[in-house]
Specification:
Rossmann fold; two-stranded antiparallel ribbon; single chain; 15 strands; globular; 33 helices; 831 residues
Length: 831
């Protein structure tokens, strides 16, 4: 029986160490938490300092230089208008300028009046697409089983352009981001024009101003899928359609391809925001809106004020505030300065810019919550419907991404970082048989990506002419580069090359991703705010609105009001047409060297510079406040649950996937076809890049020459994907087993010549290409390479010899020996 002393002894010997260990552990954890908080505070301070420094450098480099240049011009202008030089001439110069300036003012005001008239007519007509091409409606989304306000338009080729129905169709999805449809084809040299001039059938996905009742993005995605099916039915003998998504049409294209993996051909994303938290510190102020303007509840509130419909004019206002000097001053000054000629161009753009569209509350709620604030598409958490997450890894079509450093709406980081977030590394891209090609331009702006920029047009032209060769690439991640080659003007040709890239190359475009931690806190706070608004405020707001008040709030939006007030309906403006006609009949332009014109331009430059300076200061303040609030230690801890937490597999785990193991086990299976494709992929891997002319020879060989031409496209893709897996995980064994695929000396010699034909002349080959070709010949027991192979060796193969060259029968693929996609169990393992 234990006595009291025994009990005390037990406590002393057993419990005291436990309490001591617990206290020590708590102290250690406390120190760690303090250390983490201090580190977070330092990181937040570093980002604020870096952002302010970047803004100040820009202001010193750009704004100060511009102001200094203006002062230099001011001296010359003042000397030119000095009355002391010639008083009589000064009076005449002044009179000429004042006459010219007043006449230009009347002409410019008349253009603004016409803009107001066009706005009212455009709204009355339901805001039809502003396409410059004629079109016919193929499918109206309101007639589908799950109706929506989207339409499929067939672009009718203009006179002089012939379209081949056998060529791959193009489908262009325009952004529904406040503006109306047509930006991808409202100029002759836009995306539509590029595809038409190349002879491709072109279809356009448009939308009407008013959404259908209860419409969600799920209905929109289903409609777009039906549009693609209809285009495929119209062109049964053509390859699968290319789908081009502009801006927000880009992430819509990803939704379409991820939910319908076998439906589309290559997809092209132009300036499309996908990884919406991404960007560089010191730039891209638009991404901070969610943290400073309240997140999702703002969209909910304005939808409620609009009686269940969100006014796209709010989004347009956000775009305009990104560059206020251009949108609120410079474009109007340019109109005034060039009033004789600028009117048509101004009205063409303003017709699209001034067409404001509506979204149902569930649509804008999804866009803000799932994409721009929640960044859920990159995290594999976005869902169109309950229980249906959108996994971008399901996309099987090649993906081409076009982005630009000059894009202040969708920076390159937002267009590309989703790749790093979605896949473990390039190995997983290859395992899944995916081809992702990206281009990063140095300067073209957001709208220039879609329309009239000659630089962007070059990119679109090269993508259109290179699409077939992109599909012939081995699976992987590539950067496409376009360089000047020869010729001038429209006759200039370009050299296009594809360079293999790693995730480190994509990450190098960013300045680090520590800044994204703050956005996780914003996402969590936005969810709380939305819930509070939904429970406590929304019932009151909805009780105060109806259809009439919703229409009234839209009509009173400043962007609509300024156009409606300055239309012919205003009696004060109604006299402008007659005045403008009188001015045109008695137009008196000032001489180009009139010094008052120089003074006018100088004044405009100073005003623009002042507004840009205000914008830069605003952006610096905007960013500082954002990181001061959401980058603080408490906010980082608060957002911990919403950070990117996707577990991505390492190299060993990827190697263990069923698809990889199946390819390795069957490494020696196959024949001439597998051997040639394996050697071509090895050749491309050894170079690290490939020029388009060589890729075109490879694509032509694999699609037009027997025995490859007899393969179905799915079978051909499966072979390329499988051989790429072997090279990725067992490159040496893949080379050593080539003799087991090519069993006769004749087959080996022919295969070596076919592979040598692709890179062209020996003197133009890179050293690694030469080494790899010689290595092939040594393994196959052939003499060293000495002569060029400039003609396709397969063109000389007799029909009797083809039976010896054919690969495994198509029935093997159909029976499940190989498949162009990852089996279900392998997909689960790779998730």
């Amino acid at each position: 029986m234990l006595n009291v002393l025994d009990v005390f002894s037990f406590h002393n010997n057993k419990l005291t160490p436990l309490f001591a260990d617990s206290a020590q552990s708590e102290a250690t954890q406390g120190v760690k938490r303090l250390t983490d908080s201090a580190r977070a505070a330092l990181l937040s301070g570093e980002m604020i300092t870096r952002g302010v420094s970047h803004h100040m450098q820009n202001q010193v480099k750009e704004d100060c230089q511009r102001i200094w240049s203006s002062f230099e011009h001011l001296g010359g202008v003042m000397c030119g208008i000095s009355p002391a030089n010639d008083p009589g001439n000064f009076v005449e110069i002044l009179r000429s300028y004042l006459t010219d300036a007043s006449q230009r003012g009347i002409l410019a005001l008349d253009v603004l009046r016409r803009r107001g008239d066009i706005f009212l007519e455009h709204e009355a007509a339901g805001c039809p697409p502003v396409l410059t091409y004629q079109y016919e409606v193929v499918i109206d989304g309101k007639d589908l089983p799950r109706p929506c306000n989207y339409m499929l338009l067939h672009i009718l080729p203009p006179q002089g352009i012939t379209v081949d129905a056998m060529r791959r169709p193009y489908i262009i999805i325009d952004p529904r981001a406040g503006h109306g449809a047509g930006i991808g084809g409202f100029k002759m040299d836009s995306q539509v024009g590029v595809a038409l001039h190349a002879g491709h059938p072109v279809y356009f996905v448009s939308f009407t101003r008013e959404p259908q009742p209860h419409q969600t993005l799920a209905e929109v995605t289903r409609a777009e899928a039906e549009f693609v099916r209809e285009v495929t039915r119209r062109h049964p003998d053509a390859p699968k359609p290319v789908v081009i998504g502009n801006c927000q049409g880009g992430w819509a294209t990803l939704l379409l391809a991820a939910t319908n993996p076998d439906l589309t051909g290559p997809i092209v994303l132009n300036g499309s925001p996908v990884a919406t938290w991404s960007g560089t510190v010191g730039t891209n102020p638009m991404r901070y809106n969610g943290g400073l303007l309240g997140g999702t509840w703002q969209a909910m509130f304005w939808s409620d004020v609009g009686n269940g419909k969100f006014d796209g004019a709010h989004l347009v206002t956000n775009f305009e505030l990104l560059n206020p000097s251009r949108n609120y001053f410079r474009k109007y000054f340019d109109l005034y300065q060039k009033a004789d000629t600028e009117g048509p161009r101004f009205l063409e753009f303003e017709t699209w810019w001034g067409g404001y569209f509506l979204l149902n509350e569930p649509e804008i709620h999804w866009i803000v919550e799932q994409l721009f604030v929640g960044n859920r598409l990159s995290k594999n958490e976005a869902r169109l419907e309950t229980g249906r997450n959108i996994d971008l890894k399901n996309i099987r079509s090649p993906i081409i991404v076009f982005t630009s450093y000059g894009d202040n709406i969708t920076p390159p980081q937002q267009a590309l970082n989703w790749i790093v977030d979605t896949y473990a590394d390039v190995s997983e891209i290859k395992i899944r048989g995916q081809r992702i090609v990206y281009m990063v331009h140095d300067q073209v702006g957001h709208l220039g990506i879609f329309v009239s920029s000659k630089i962007a047009q070059r990119e679109h032209t090269e993508v259109a002419t290179t699409m077939e060769t992109i599909e012939a690439l081995a699976p992987g991640l590539y950067e496409m580069k376009i360089e000047d080659f020869a010729g001038e003007g429209k006759h200039r040709t370009f050299t296009v090359s594809f360079h293999e890239r790693t995730f480190e190359d994509v990450e190098a475009i960013d300045d680090g991703r520590d800044d994204e931690v703050a956005f996780a806190a914003v996402a969590r706070a936005s969810e709380y705010q939305a819930e509070q608004y939904d429970l406590m405020v929304r019932p009151l707001v909805r009780a105060c609105v109806n259809q009439a008040t919703g229409e009234l709030t839209r009509a009173l939006h400043p962007l609509r009001t300024q156009r409606a007030l300055f239309s012919s309906r205003n009696p004060i403006v109604s006299a402008l047409p007659n005045l403008a006609e009188q001015v045109k009949a008695d137009r008196q332009q000032a001489a180009p060297d009139n010094p008052f014109l120089a003074m006018e331009r100088l004044w405009a430059d100073v005003v623009e510079q002042s507004m840009d300076l205000w914008r830069d200061v605003r952006d610096a303040w905007y960013e500082t406040v954002f990181f001061g609030i959401w980058g603080a230690p408490w906010a980082r801890e608060f957002g911990e649950t919403h950070r990117l937490r996707r577990t991505l597999k390492n190299e060993a785990e990827l190697r263990a996937l069923a698809e990889v193991q199946h390819a390795i086990r069957h490494m020696a299976d196959g024949g001439f076809v597998e051997a040639v494709i394996r050697m071509l992929v090895l050749l491309a891997e050894s170079r690290g890049n490939v020029r388009r002319d060589r890729l075109e020879r490879s694509a032509h060989l694999l699609t037009e020459s027997e025995p490859f031409r007899s393969l179905s496209s799915e079978h051909r893709k499966w072979i390329i994907d499988r051989q790429t897996l072997l090279i990725q995980f067992e490159p040496q064994s893949a080379i050593e087993t080539l003799p087991r695929l090519l069993k006769t000396p004749e087959q080996r010699a022919l295969a070596a010549d076919v592979v040598q034909y692709v890179p062209g002349q020996i003197t133009e080959m890179a050293p690694q290409t030469l080494n790899m070709l010689q290595h092939f010949r040594r393994v196959l027991g052939l003499p060293p390479m000495t002569n060029d192979v400039l003609e396709n060796p397969l063109d000389a193969v007799t029909p009797a010899s083809l039976a010896l060259l054919h690969a495994a029968p198509q029935a093997d693929v159909d029976a499940g020996v190989g498949t162009a996609t990852i089996p279900a169990h392998a997909q689960e393992n790779a998730a």
